[in-house]
Amino acid sequence: MNHDRSRELYDRALSVLAGGVNSSVRATRPYPFVIERGDGAHVIDADGNRYLDYVMGYGPLLYGHDAPEQVQSAIQRHASQGPMYGGPTEIEVDHAEFVARHVPSVEMLRFVNSGTEATVSAVRLARAYTGRDTIVVMQGGYHGAQESTLVEAGDDPSHTRPSSPGIPESFAEHTIAVPFNNEAAIREVFEERGDEIAAVLTEPILANYGIVMPVDGYHETLRGLCDDHGSLLIFDEVITGFRVGGLQCAQGKFGVTPDLTTFGKIIGGGFPVGAIGGPAEIVEHFTPSGDVFQSGTFSGHPVTMAAGNEYLRYAAEHDVYDHVNDLGDRLRSGIRDICEDQAPEYTVVGTDSMFKTVFTREAPGAFENHCGGGCRQRESCERFETCPKTGADTAAAATERWERVFWQEMKEQGIWLTANQFESQFVSDAHTEADIEETLEAYKEAL
Ligand SMILES: *Cc1c(COP(=O)(O)O)cnc(C)c1O
């Protein structure tokens, strides 16, 4: 593959964009290929190379790069009519009604412009509603580029530190980071500081650091502890929303009802979006019905609302989730079979249309009775003791090999995976069975 033009463009970018990119994960080594356009399940770069795309915008693109006709015409119509006004529009109401109708815990919403903005506002709302300051998050959980959750656990888990320069230590003092899936750890935190905890904020599945599924009963434990101590349970469904569990989202799949839910990615149909949803009794504390300040020039942008609403309507009317989940299953099972032959220590993870191969360093050779379609954290599985259960377990994998050797080899074979060991990959409605076969052949070569 020739990458001359991408190299030239990145050279220009390095002079005017910090690190040559606008989101850090895009700066793949030695330099990223610069994308010119999308085509179904593929992207084409500036040198004319074609890649089968499993990045899918890092989550939003449920249909790949050619949205259904009804989505495209709604986007065109709203873009040419406005595109935005600073006054309310009908399409915001339509979209909110759709989400509230399908997601179990949601009665009312506030739309914002990114997943980060959604988690910022959800944390503010939870703190105001409970009159408490402390937030509990999961180590390896991701909630966007915001001060309250960019933290890492110190050696003493009660002393959380900022994970980036520029965040005052005093922010991190209000955040506790516990290991995901560890019931004893979260019980201890609630025993010691339960009456200070405004909320537990977690992804239902760690999807930015794994993928890591919850062990049986973990979310029920969180739900119970929050109820017992008057804390809110916030599910960050920015990535799982309308991807895992179909239209009911991951909370429907797991049968656990959070107090607040944050959304992003798919609900914007490919445009910048975020949302906070929950019962009216909590969400109405946002201004102007309540006193928790929340506002945004572009919030509920008509083009975004139209794209997101048609996206979800199309999914409600067609068997989109059956298709993408079936392909996800085939892909995970196929990769599992390849691992059995070529890299038995690796763990295939994911669910629905999300997948990843974690380069775990140790696992029993046994594949019998192993979860074929991606690790489910089944205690009866012989690999249960060694499959990743926390962010730290994923970080202990062969992450350099994943990124510097495996990712590069897949790219050169025309398969575009997310840029490192940690981020989830996605199957879209545009992918076909033939694409899956091609991908498995590439895994066979690269693993
Ligand atoms: C992507 C993501 C975010 C951040 O959303 P942005 O739109 O990038 O700000 C927050 N939480 C989760 C779980 C995400 O996957």
UniProtKB/TrEMBL annotation:
Location of N6-(pyridoxal phosphate)lysine modifications: 265
Isomerase listed as a keyword: yes
Q: Does the keyword Mitochondrion apply?
A: no
Q: In which pathway does it act?
A: Porphyrin-containing compound metabolism; protoporphyrin-IX biosynthesis; 5-aminolevulinate from L-glutamyl-tRNA(Glu): step 2/2
Q: What is its main location?
A: cytoplasm
* Cofactor names: pyridoxal 5'-phosphate
Q: Tell me which EC number(s) this protein carries.
A: 5.4.3.8
Keywords for this protein: Cytoplasm, Isomerase, Porphyrin biosynthesis, Pyridoxal phosphate
Which GO terms label this protein's molecular function in UniProt? Answer: glutamate-1-semialdehyde 2,1-aminomutase activity; pyridoxal phosphate binding; transaminase activity
Q: Which GO terms describe its biological process?
A: protoporphyrinogen IX biosynthetic process
- CDD domains named in the record: OAT_like (cd00610)
Stored Pfam families: Aminotran_3
The record's section on Gene3D superfamilies has:
Aspartate Aminotransferase, domain 1 (3.90.1150.10), Type I PLP-dependent aspartate aminotransferase-like (Major domain) (3.40.640.10)
Q: Which InterPro entries match?
A: 4pyrrol_synth_GluAld_NH2Trfase, Aminotrans_3, Aminotrans_3_PPA_site, PyrdxlP-dep_Trfase, PyrdxlP-dep_Trfase_major, PyrdxlP-dep_Trfase_small
What GO cellular component entries does it have?
cytoplasm
UniProt catalytic activity: (S)-4-amino-5-oxopentanoate = 5-aminolevulinate
Location(s) in or outside the cell? Cytoplasm
Q: Which family does it belong to?
A: Belongs to the class-III pyridoxal-phosphate-dependent aminotransferase family. HemL subfamily.
The protein's name is Glutamate-1-semialdehyde 2,1-aminomutase
Taxonomic source organism: Halobaculum gomorrense
- From the UniProt record, report the name of the gene that encodes this protein: hemL
